[in-house]
Amino acid sequence: MTAQGSRVTVEYDDAEGLPRVAVVTFDRPPVNAIDGCTKDELIAVARDLSIQHDLGAVVIGGTRYFAAGDDIKEMASFERGYAVQGLERISEAVAAVAAIPVPVVAAVTGFALGGGCELALAADFRVAGVGSTWGLPEVHLGLIPGGGGTQRLPRLVGTARAKRMIYLGETIDGTEAVSWGLADEVVPDDQVFATARRLARELTRRAPIAIRAAKRAIDSGADCDLATGLQLESALFASVFSTQDAATGLASFLTDGPRKATFQGR
User: Fold this and answer.
1) What is the CATH number of domain 208-256?
2) Distance (Å) of CA 202 to CA 154, 195, 227
3) Beta bridge partners of 104
């Protein structure tokens, strides 16, 4: 099944007995620059995916390029007020992707620059093509990242490396992205989507309620103090323990050993 927008396509990968995988693809030649319409479509798609109860994981990527950042021609044509609104929309789009309650895997080929890099940062996992280019080069435009880059990048790679990338506007390749901790895996460019889809499908074999609870605990806990985060974890543990999946997993461990359970999402 495929849902088609003018710039963002959603294809669903179904496997019997497992939650669905949604594959979100950007297609705005030549380099997937993110204009206002792309932002609106991405926000709508992310919000729709967030309310799908049969969804287990999401893969997000581009046809040839991941995304080369905001459409600079569009931005330059705006007066200041409209330009600021445009930056707020990329921030909203990135936040909408980050808020999807199931694991999101970014399949990064070509450019992941500016807003494109920020979209990748919003994912839970990032598979990098060996020829991919990552960066937050807004300083070369007299700007700073406006879609969460100053906040999410330091949390992944550390403050010093984040400052180097942002202050100098430097770019790194896929291999460097992995060594920095920005990406999780680097593969040949023509294997990026296949690798991301395999990871997404593997994630759907885990207990889906537990996965959603773990993502909420990690993401929400990162934004609060330790004591509050621990309280959230305890509450989520209690809610997950009462599910049929937990009963299935515990019983399977006792009778068949570890990692043999098949979960139903109940």
Assistant:
1) 1.10.12.10
2) 28, 11, 32
3) 58
Question: What confidence tier does 3 reach under pLDDT thresholds 50, 70, 90?
Answer: low
Distances (CA, A) of 74 to 3, 56, 87, 195, 206: 26, 36, 11, 34, 43
**What pLDDT digit, counting tens, does each position of 234-254 carry?**
999 999 999 999 999 999 999
89-95-99 Cα angle (round to 5)? 145
Domain coordinates of the chain in residue numbers?
A: 2-203, 208-256
Which residues does the annotation mark as catalytic?
Answer: 118, 138
Task: Report how far apart, in Å, the C-alpha atoms of 145 and of each of 41, 156, 164, 168, 199 are.
Answer: 21, 16, 13, 13, 29
Give the residue from 77, 62, 148 showing the smallest Cα distance to 112: 62
Query: What gap in Å lies between CA 100 and CA 96, rounded to an integer?
Result: 7
Q: Taking the domain 2-203, which CATH number applies?
A: 3.90.226.10
Residue 43 near residue 115 (C-beta atoms within 8 A)? no
